[in-house]
From TrEMBL:
Annotated EC: 3.6.5.4
Cellular component annotations (GO), alphabetically ordered: signal recognition particle
Species of provenance: Promicromonospora citrea
A single GO molecular function term of this UniProt record: GTP binding
Record-given protein name: Signal recognition particle protein
Length: 547
């Protein structure tokens, strides 16, 4: 995640230097711990957390578990990973649902932390799990907060309970006779009653925030909590606010006693390490992470997976989960059967696969979850997300026959496709060349390999396929030229005999002691036809054997 890129780069560099050493001395470990301390402090991690973390890492690194390890450097990385998981909260903590619906979830935090947007994301996620959430607009202080929540609820496809317009400007509501500020506690209480009446099983209460901590804010939040008796109180914190995150978290823990933390704006480019301190300082788990503006940019927080990302070990499990959600299982099975029967992977198939890839979200985000991709961050940043749309436009400008058999696309067809896609014939040529390489790879996979999650092939133009550059020279070795005739008469005669055997159907290795098709020199007798009756052949090949 971008907010932890700096920390990830520093730690990765430290461990890279560590791996160059065989046995580790106490001085080596001290130097490594010193670099880790600097990296964490530069990332805004709270000082008490840094002290405890580095002390534990040093103690374990000097113990027998490292000195007796076959690879001490890897053992130190393992220790740092385990301790980082502990700092982030240890285990994944799911939502606590009420035994008797509705489950009441209250959102708390400072103004601008992203509570309203998060309410929509959480409702959208719960709706996808089969729940029937309703949003309650109890933020009556911030201008147009109720209107914003209504818009977010509409985008998420969930209802909103908003009996009071809240604080609106004269331009928005010139005829409003109601006072600007209503009773947020009463709205929250009535929202829960509304959910029971309409049989919604989850209530998400959006509360007011302030630019800073004050008694009025805390009292109002405490009163709402007492009125609705929530099953979960989620403290929403901006991952980019720096060291003040710890003080804010402590104040809300004392005033509202939240049960879990949600990190928002993890897609930012600030240092963000203070957010990592919240779980350790407050003793409350981080439960969710918000990673963008879209409703789908929301995920359950897994401490072990986040630690792996920070240490540039990737997050393959989350990638697989996203693929399972985005890819159509029926379509994937159809694709697997097609390749298993030896049919070619076509541009039409590729278009379907690419559209499902788009459903997974940002290509950069997906690729960043692969192990070791931190070392290719510059290349990833240069990757243009619009390239997927351009490729899609090119394929959609082709006729069905051209998608099924790209070899019929001649010069005039390429010019027509380029005009239809609003691009150049050079772009068409590059796509067809990369697709040809992808098609060859799929043939190899159908013979002896397998497909990735959801039957997903590599995308022409994506990392691993040349990133838009020609890759023919790297994907297959150059063809060997035909050997000329030898100047040695005896050797030339041998070459002519081998050529005659090949012309008659034999091979260069066809000798009486090792007949063609025999691995151990034992085969059918001379002039005796081989028995092919028990061979299991793919459908359609029988006719070539005279069956």
């Amino acid at each position: 995640m971008p907010v932890f890129n700096s920390l990830s780069d520093r730690l990765t560099s430290t461990f890279k230097n560590l791996r160059t050493r065989g046995r580790l001395s106490e001085a080596d470990i001290d130097a490594t711990v010193r670099e880790i301390r600097r990296a964490l402090l530069d990332a805004d991690v709270a000082v008490p957390v840094v002290r405890e973390f580095t002390a534990t890492v040093r103690e374990r690194a000097l113990s027998a578990e490292v000195s007796g390890a076959l690879n001490p450097a890897q053992q130190v990385v393992k220790i740092v990973n385990e301790e980082l998981v502990e700092v982030l909260g240890g285990a994944t903590r799911p939502l606590t649902l009420a035994k008797t619906p509705p489950t009441v979830i209250m959102l708390a935090g400072l103004q601008g932390a992203g509570k309203t947007t998060l309410a929509g994301k959480l409702a959208h996620a719960l709706k996808g799990q089969g729940h029937t959430p309703v949003l309650v607009a109890a933020d009556l202080q911030r201008p147009n907060a109720v209107t914003q929540l209504s818009v977010v609820a509409e985008r998420a496809g969930v209802p909103v309970f908003a009996p009071h317009p809240g604080n609106t400007s004269d331009a928005d509501d010139p005829a409003a006779d109601a006072p600007l500020i209503g009773d947020p506690v009463g709205v929250a209480r009535d929202g829960v009653a509304y959910a029971k009446e309409r049989q919604h099983d989850v209530v998400i209460v959006d509360t007011a925030g302030r630019l800073g901590i004050d008694e009025v804010l805390m009292q109002q939040a405490a009163d709402i909590r007492a009125a609705v008796n929530p099953d979960e109180v989620l403290f929403v914190i901006d991952a980019m606010i720096g060291q003040d995150a710890v003080n804010t978290a402590k104040a809300f823990a004392d005033g509202v006693d939240f049960t879990g933390v949600v990190l928002s704006k993890l897609d930012g480019d600030a240092r963000g390490g203070a957010a990592l301190s919240v779980a350790k300082v407050t003793g409350r788990p981080i439960m969710f992470a918000s990673t963008g503006e879209k409703l789908t940019d929301f995920e359950v927080f897994h401490p072990d997976r986040m630690a792996s990302r920070i240490l540039d070990m990737g997050d393959v499990l989350t990638l697989i989960e996203q693929a399972e959600k985005a890819f159509d299982a029926e379509q994937a099975e159809k694709m697997a059967k097609k390749l298993a029967t030896g049919q070619d992977f076509t541009l039409a198939d590729f278009l379907v696969q690419m559209q499902q890839l788009k459903n997974m979200g940002s290509m950069k985000k997906m690729l960043s979850m692969m192990p070791g991709m931190g070392q290719m961050r510059e290349q990833l940043e240069q990757f243009d997300e619009r390239e997927v749309n351009r490729i899609e436009a090119i394929i959609q400008s082709m006729t069905p026959a051209e998608r099924e058999n790209p070899k019929i696309i001649n010069g005039s067809r390429r010019a027509r496709i380029a005009r239809g896609a609003g691009t150049t014939t050079t772009a068409i040529n590059q796509l067809l060349e990369r697709f040809d390489n992808a098609q060859k790879m799929m043939r190899q996979m159908s013979k002896g390999g397998g497909l990735g999650p959801g039957g997903m092939p590599a995308m022409p133009g994506a990392p691993g396929m040349g990133m838009g550059k020609k890759s023919r020279g790297r994907t297959q070795p150059p063809k060997k030229g035909k050997k000329g005739k030898s100047g040695n008469p005896a050797k030339r005669a041998q070459q002519e005999r081998e050529a005659m055997q090949r012309a008659l159907g034999g091979g260069a290795a066809s000798t009486p002691s090792a007949p063609a098709g025999s691995a151990f020199g034992v085969g059918p007798k001379k002039d005796e036809a081989p028995d092919l009756s028990n061979l299991e052949l793919p459908p359609g090949l029988e006719k070539f054997l005279g069956r």
